[in-house]
Amino acid sequence: MKETLKELRDTLTPLYGKGETEAIIRLIFHHLKGWNLTEMLIHGEDELSPFIKNQIQKILQRLIKFEPIQYITGEARFHGMNLKIKPGVLIPRPETDELTDIIIKENEDKEDLKVLDLCTGSGCIAIALKRNLKFPDVTALDISQKAIEVAEENASDLKAKINFVKDDIFKWIPEDKFDIIVSNPPYVDKSEGKDMDKNVLNYEPAEAIFVSDKNPLSFYERIAEIAKSSLNADGSLYLEINPRHSRELKEMLEEKGFKNINVVLDSFGKKRFIKCSIN
């Protein structure tokens, strides 16, 4: 165990940094042995089996190529849940977990809310809201067949009944009214890609991340159209956003008639979320 930990740290720290390396190591041992950090310490003197050593070597070779650990283990943590994750489906981010927290805290006392999650990906937001709000009716949409399949599998595993819709957000017309509409759409300008890590650029689905520099608000403009026609009078729209476009996004929402537009900072102090209403 000690030799293996030393090899992992020596190999990965120059590539990922100390903090991320330790997080990756914990995920490896949770995946292979089911151990948490305390159990890793307890088993610190153990002799690892040849099978486990071989599995760790295979994982290490993939990590050296910057393949995300979530795709290697096939799972990601989100809001206290273990979600299945596969290549072609966006890996849930801590910022999105923060957005989910905001929605839950602001709506935890309300019952039977109708919720719409646009660009659901792995289903992380939709499932967390279904499990943490009081008897919500949740609909979740994505254009990707692979994303819908993964989201449905996650919902089934976590016993969350959700109405999943495979459709193009730019063509889909909802038939219902909703109390909450939430979205974490693609919002990274293509020009920002040059500064992003290899594990994102080389492995995660570009269509779930990037938008054209010429029209970076395209998804938000469509989401605003949907919300204007489908949000209940006392409902709320919640968005995860690109901090560099917070001002023009707020202005666009104002022009479309939205009220009570609040830009909310994430834990790093960046303008990461917007909440607004139609009244």
What is the compact description of this entry?
The protein is of the alpha/beta class and 279 residues long. Helix content is 43%, strand content 20%.
Provide keyphrases for this structure.
279 residues, 11 helices, alpha/beta, 20% strand
Structural class by helix and strand composition = alpha/beta
Tally the helices: 11
Provide the residue-averaged pLDDT.
97
Taken in chain order, the helices and strands follow as HHHHHEEHEHEHEEEHEHEHEE
Which outline best applies?
Answer: globular
Amino-to-carboxy terminus distance:
59 Å
Helical amount: 40-55%
* Strand arrangement in the largest pleated sheet: 5-4-3-6-9-11-10
Give the amount of beta strand, in percent.
15-25%
Main sheet characteristics:
7 strands, mixed
Rg calculated over all Cα atoms: 20 Å
Query: Low-confidence stretches at least 5 residues in length (pLDDT < 50)?
Result: none
- Say how many strands there are: 11
Descriptive overview:
The chain is of the alpha/beta class and about 280 residues long. Helices cover about 45% and strands about 20% of the residues. It has 11 helices and 11 strands. It has helices at about 1-15, 20-35, 35-40, 50-65, 70-75, 95-105, 125-130, 145-155, 200, 220-230, 245-255; strands at about 75-80, 80-85, 115-120, 135-140, 165, 180-185, 190, 210, 230-240, 260-265, 270-275. Strands 5-4-3-6-9-11-10 form a 7-stranded mixed sheet, with helices on both faces. The protein starts with a helix and ends with a strand.
